Amino acid sequence: MAKAAVKRTGSSATVVLLLIAIITVLFGGMMWFQYLGIVDAESLIRPLAGRLPYVGKYFRYPVISSSLLKEERISKLKQSITMREEALQKRELELEEKDKAVLLREKQIESDRREIEEELKALEANKKRYDETEYKYSMLAKYYSNMKPENSAAIIEAMDDLLVVDILQRMDPQAVSRILMSLSAEKAGGIMRRMSQ
Length: 197
Known about the structure:
It is built from seven helices and no strands. With 197 residues, the chain is mostly helical.
């Protein structure tokens, strides 16, 4: 029996040594694969080894305190706020540029409006002068039409040809022909040339 007890002890020691060797080879292989980046051995070993009685305390996940979580959250919030501030500053710069463009355009429009108003005033003044001149020539034409052709011709002889043409153009053609017949041939020829141009 003693021999049988020795044999059992020897065979159980061999089994234990073989188990330790197998575990060591497995553990070493896992670490080697971890080193090569083939397997994530840490995530496989840590949960199992954390449950072992004496060794487990070295394999447990570190406890993350609530203050670390708060700091991380605060850090993310700060990053978010910083990103929003940058976006707002960028948007503000864009709006300022648009405001400058709008102000420049408003100034241009105001300048154009003033120019148009000045041109309009000048046109109105020219129209008023034209109307006044037209009225004066029409009145002179009416006066000369009502006068005897000899009297009209005597006055027209002393006048400038351009003025005479402007007056005669506003008169009845029969009155014009009577006045032209009363004028000297030279004066009548000059007026006729101007009227035909």
